[in-house]
Amino acid sequence: MKEQKSKTLRGFLFGAGFVAIAAFLFTGCPSQQGMMDTREAAQKVYVAPGEHDEYYGFFSGGYSGQLSVWGLPSSRLLKVIPVFSQDPESGYGYSEETKPLFETSYGFIPWDDSHHPHISQTDGDADGRWIFINANNTPRIARIDLKTFETKEILELPNTGGNHASSFVTSNTEYVIGGTRFSIPYEADLDVPIDSYSDEFRGALSFVAVDQETGMMDLDFQIVVPPYNYDLGRAGKGPSADWVFFTTYNTEEAHTMLEVNASRYDKDFIAAVNWRKAAELVEQGHGRTVSAEYYHNYYEGNQGYAINDIKDQVTILDTREIDENFIYYLPTPKSPHGVDVDPTGEYIVGGGKLATVIPVHSFSRMLEAIDNNEVEEVIDGIPVLNYDATIAGEVENPGLGPLHTEFDGRGYAYTSVYISSEIVKWSLETFEVVDRIDAYYSIGHLMITGGDTKNPDARYMVGLTKTAKDRYLPTGPKQNHPAQLYDISGDRMELLLDFPTIGEPHYAQAIRADKIVDQVAQIYEMEENDHPDALLRIADNRVERDGNTVHVYMGSTRSHFRPDNIEGIRVGDTVYIHLTNLEQEWDVVHGIAVKGANNAEILVAPGQTKTLKWEPTRTGIYPFYCTAFCSALHQEMQGYIRVSAEDSDVELAWRTGTD
Amino acid sequence: MTFLKYIPKLILPIVLLFSLQACGEDDRSQRDDQEETTEAGLTEFELEHGIGPVTERIEIDDEIDQELVTKGRNIYEMKCEMCHNMEGRMVGPQLGDVMEHRSPEFVMNFILNPSGMTREHPVGQELLQEYMTSMPFQNVKEDEARAIVEFLRDYKRNN
Ligand SMILES: [Cu+2]
Question: For residue A536, which residues of chain B lie inside 8 Å, CB to CB?
Fold first, then answer.
C-alpha cells in the first residue's frame, strides 16, 4: 500500500515536471515548435459535450480495408464504415445480405487494403452524395452512400494489379478512376515468363462511369498503356476538367528489385488523359471489346441481398491501335508519387519522391505544347511532351521525398515530405517555400478541408503519418498509425492535435458537416423495407421448412423476439434466421447471437432486415439473445431453439408468450 | 482546503437549480397568458387530451370510415402489434378498450409524442411506471395516427 503511494507520488512529480518543461517549451518558443500556446490549441479543438464538429473527416483504413469517420476539429472517432473487410462489430460480410459484396473473380475475399476515399463532386466541389474508396490488392472500387453511411456497391476491375491510382472522381462525378500499380499481362490469366515483361505486360487505366441518379458504377472503358507502374491519379478542374492525370514510375520497365532498377532514370512521366475525348472515341466505336471476368456487386432495392452481376467483357482503347491522340506523357522527375491539381485547374503538381524539387506543370502551357507539337518522342502512340514546354516552375528545397500536395485556395500549396518528415507550404506565385512544420513521423498523404476542390474551405489540415513511436502511451511493437491536425487559417501552420487512428490511413477527405448532416437517415423506414424476407407484420412471424433448409422469419422490438421458442430443427439443417428490427426509433438497434453459430452475430438497425446463416451440428437446446443493450429489459430479450437428431420426428413449432 | 474541494460539487446543483427554475417560470408565465393551468402544470386540454401535436378537438363522424380502418389496421400490424394486444397486457397495455377511457386526441398524442407523454403527463407517467418500457415513436404521421384511432374505434364497436 505504502509502496503504491510513493510510486503514484513519484509519477505525479514527474508528470508535473514534465508539464512544466513542456509548457516552457511550447509557450517559450512557439514559432520554433509550430505549436501554439497549448491553451489556445486546446480551445480550438474543443467541441463541448453535446455539440457537433464542423467537418466530417473520412480516413481510409489502409490494411484494415475499412473507412473511418471522424469529427474535425475534435478528432473524435464517429464510426468505422466496413467496406472491404468483414466486420464482426456489425456482422457486415457475415450476414447473407452483405456476403455477396465480397465476391470477386478470385472468390470470396474477406480482407483487403483500402487507400483513397474520394467524395463525389458537382462542378468541382464535394457534394456529399457518395464516397468512393479503392481496394488496392484485389482491384475494386466501392461506393458508400452518405445517407446511411453504408457500402452499397463494389465493382471489380479486370486487367489491373494493385488498384492504387484510384478512386478519384472527375469534376461532376462523370467517372471514378482506377489505375494499375503493377503492369501485368493483359489477356486474362495469361501464363508467361516474368522476364517477358516488356513484351507481354501492359498497364490499364480504368474509367468507371457513375449514374447520376443512383450512383451505380459501370466500367465504361480501359486505356491500355505501356508497362509502367501507374501510381496515383487526379482529375483536373475548371479549364482542365476534361482531363485526368496519372503519375508513372518504373518507366525503366523493371520486374525485379525495383528499389534499384526502377530508380535509374532522371524522369518518369505524368500521363495526361483527355477522358472526354477517350469516351467519345469509345462511343464512336474506336474501342475493342476483350473478354475479362469481373464482378459487380450491388443491391437492387433499398434492402435485401446484394447480388453478383458477373461481367465477361470490357471495352479497351489501346494507344498502339488508335491514331488520334487523347493521352500525353509529361516528363516529371523522379519516380513521382502524387499528382495534384490546384483549385484553378491550371497547375499540376508532381510529387517526385526521389526528386530534389517539386515540379509544377502548367495546364495552359501543356495545351500550347500540344498545339505546337513540342513532342520529344512517341511511345506506343503516346506523344512525350518537352519538359521545358510544360513546366511552370520548380519548388526548390522542398525537403527529402515530396509526396502529395493540397491547396488552400489563397495561393498556397502544402506538400507532404516523407523522408524529412515535414510539411512544406509554398507559394503558387513564386514557387518558393514560405513555411515548414514537422510531422510525427514519416508523413504520407495530407488532407486539407476541401483542399482538393475548386473551393477549398481551408481551415484545417490533417497529416497522415506512418509511425507513432513515442507519441502516445506505448502499446507494443506494432502501434496504431497517427494523424496530426493543423490550423492553417493563419500565415503559419500550427499543430493543434496529435491522435491515433484506425488501421493505416493513406488518404483522407473532409467535408463541411452542414453539407450532409440533414440527409443522414435516422431509421430505415418500415414502409420502404423491400427485403424479400422482411417481417413487415409481427403476426406473420413463422418458421418454414423446405427440405433441409429452414427459414425463421423473426421480429424484434424492445424487449423480445418473435418467435422466441422454436422446436423441430434438426442436425444437418441449414437455418436462415431473417431478423427484422421493427423499431422505428433512431439508434435503437437489436442483434442476435445463437450459441455455437460459427458464422458471427449480426446487428440490425431500426427498420432493417438481416439474415444469419446457422448450421447446427449437435443436438441440444440453443439459447439465443439480443446482443445490443436496447432497453431496461434487454437482459430478458432471449429465446431457445431446440435441435433434434437428424431422423427425429419433432414437429416444427414456434411460439411466443404462451407456455 | 477541504471546503474548496466541495465547491465544484456545490456549484453544479446550484446552477442547475437556478436554470431549471428559470426555465419553469418562463414556461408557466407564457402559458398564463393563454389559459389557466392545472395542478400538474398542464392545461385542461392537455390533461384530458394529451400533450403533442394535436392541440384542438378534432371532428369525428359518428359513422366509421372503413377505408380509414383498413389503413389504420395496416399501420397497427406493422408498427404496434409487437407490443400491444387488443385483449390482455403485453409489452404495453391492451388497446381493445382504449377508446372507452381515452379521447381520440389523447390516443393520437400518445402515438405521436410517446416520450413527452410519459415524461410530462400524469397518465403517461403512471403507465411508464407500470410497464417499465418506454413506448417508442414509430415514425407515424398525424394522418396515420388518425387512421389508427379509426381502427381502434371500429374494434371497440365490434367487440
Ligand atoms: Cu434488444
Answer: 78
Within the 117-136 window of chain B, which residues sit less than 8 Å (CB to CB) from chain A? 132-134, 136
Q: What does the alpha-carbon distance between residue B17 and residue A537 come to, in Å, rounded to a whole number? A: 46
Which superfamily, per CATH, for B44-158? Cytochrome c-like domain (1.10.760.10)
Tens digit of pLDDT for each residue in B85-140? 999 999 999 999 999 999 999 999 999 999 999 999 999 999 999 998 889 999 99
Picking from B80, B81, B82 by the largest number of A CB atoms within 10 A of its own CB, the best residue to mutate is B82
For residue A34, is pLDDT > 70? no
List chain B domain ranges: 4-34, 44-158
Q: What confidence tier does A559 reach under pLDDT thresholds 50, 70, 90?
A: confident
Non-local CB neighbours of A212 within 8 Å, separated by 6+ positions: A173
Task: Convert the pLDDT of each residue in A178-213 to its tens digit.
Answer: 999 999 987 767 899 999 999 999 999 999 999 999
- DSSP secondary structure code for residue A114 in this structure: B
What predicted TM-score, i.e. pTM, was given to this entire model? 0.89
- Domains of chain A plus CATH, in order, are 38-519 (2.130.10.10), 533-655 (2.60.40.420)
pLDDT of residue A355: 84
CA gap A610, A533 in Å, rounded: 9
Show Cβ contacts of residue A149 under 8 Å, excluding neighbours closer than 6 positions: A69, A79, A81, A520
A526 contacts in chain B (CB < 8 Å): 78-79, 139
Say how far apart CA A61 and CA A502 lie, in whole Å: 6
Nearest to A555 by CA among A622, A600, A610, A630: A610
Nearest to B139 by CA among B101, B103, B158, B113: B113
- Cβ within 8 Å of residue B80, ≥6 positions away: B95, B138, B148
pLDDT in tens, B13-40: 444 344 333 333 334 344 444 456 666 7
Q: What are phi and psi of A94, to 5 degrees?
A: -110, -30
Q: Which residues of B touch A538 (CB under 8 A)?
A: 77, 81-82
Kindly state whether B86 is in contact with chain A, defined as any CB-CB distance less than 8 angstroms: no
Smallest CA–CA distance, residue A654 to chain B, in Å, is 16
**ipTM over 0.85 threshold:** no
Residue A188: the pLDDT is 67
- Pairing of the two strands A125-135 and A140-145: antiparallel
Q: Give the distance (Å) from ligand 1 centre to CA of residue A589.
A: 7
CA of B86 from ligand 1 middle (Å) equals: 24
- Among A526, A585, A632, beta carbon nearest to B132: A632
pLDDT digits (tens, 9 = 90+) for A345-371: 999 999 877 888 999 999 999 999 999
Query: How close B83 gets to chain A, by Cα (Å)?
Result: 8
* Cα A577 from Cα A26, distance rounded (Å): 58
Sign of CA dihedral A459, A465, A469, A472: positive
**Peptide bond connecting A559 to the previous residue in cis, omega within 30 degrees of 0:** yes
- Distance between Cα A300 and ligand 1 center (Å): 29
* Interface contact A583, partner B, CB < 8 A: yes
Chain A environment of B89 (Cβ under 8 Å): none
Contacts of B134 in chain A (CB under 8 A): 631
SS3 letters across chain B: CHHHHHHHHHHHHHHHHHHHHHHHHHHHHHHHHHCCECCCCCEHHHHHHCCCCCCCCCCCCCCCCHHHHHHHHHHHHHHCCCCCCCCCCCCCCCCCCHHHHCCHHHHHHHHHCHHHHHHHCHHHHHHHHHHCCCCCCCCCCHHHHHHHHHHHHHHHHHC
Q: What is the mean predicted confidence (pLDDT) over A425-446? A: 96
CB contact under 8 A, B79 and A526: yes
> What 3-state class would DSSP assign to A288?
strand
